[in-house]
Amino acid sequence: GEKRSSEAAQQAISSPLLEDIDISGAKGVLVNISGSSNMTMEEFDEASRIVHEKVHEDANIIVGLVINEELEDQIKITAIATGFGDSFEKDKRHLRNLKSDAAKMIGSKVDLDVPTIIRNQQREAARSMRKHGNEEDEYDIPTFLRKRID
């Protein structure tokens, strides 16, 4: 019909599959607009505008277009939204905390020229030394590991 693009956009962002989820707080949206070659640029713009108006003002929105002659007079719109509301900020904070925890565990100085297996052996040797204290004879740890730990 005349308003096929706006109807398709409304259906995509208020799908019954979304249940009680409101797309208005989404921080990231991927939109795919599919139609035949008789779809006009105005229809494309209208569908895109409806999605832009509905999501968060700072959202990262990527809109794609697919020409599919089999659709004839239909327009299909698929929207994938992420980063809803406060949970988005909580996830970012959690990720930042994980990164800082990982940095603390590794230490401020990691020599990436040393192969991972050697770095892991060094960490294990250091943990073992801390755990067992002076129980181990210093010669129980290979020389190359003892020298790397210092």
Describe this structure in words.
With 150 residues, this protein is an alpha+beta fold. It folds into two domains: 4-88, 60s Ribosomal Protein L30, Chain: A (2-Layer Sandwich); 110-150. It has helices at 4-13, 41-54, 85-106, 116-132, 143-149, and strands spanning 28-35, 60-67, 75-82. It has a three-stranded mixed β-sheet, with helices on one face. Strand 1, helix 2 (41-54) and strand 2 form a beta-alpha-beta unit. Helix 1 (4-13) packs parallel to helix 2 (41-54). The chain is elongated and about 85 Å long.
The number of domains:
2
The profile of the biggest β sheet is: 3 strands, mixed
Number of helices: 5
User: Helix/strand/pairing class, anyone?
Assistant: alpha+beta
Oligomer: single chain
Portion of residues within helices: 40-55%
At the first level of CATH, the class of the largest domain is Alpha Beta
Counting DSSP E segments of at least 2 residues, the number of strands comes to 3
Strand percentage, roughly? 15-25%
Task: Please describe the topology of this protein.
Elements: H1 4-13, E1 28-35, H2 41-54, E2 60-67, E3 75-82, H3 85-106, H4 116-132, H5 143-149
Parallel strand pairs: 1-2
Antiparallel strand pairs: 1-3
Helix pairs in contact: 1-2, 4-5
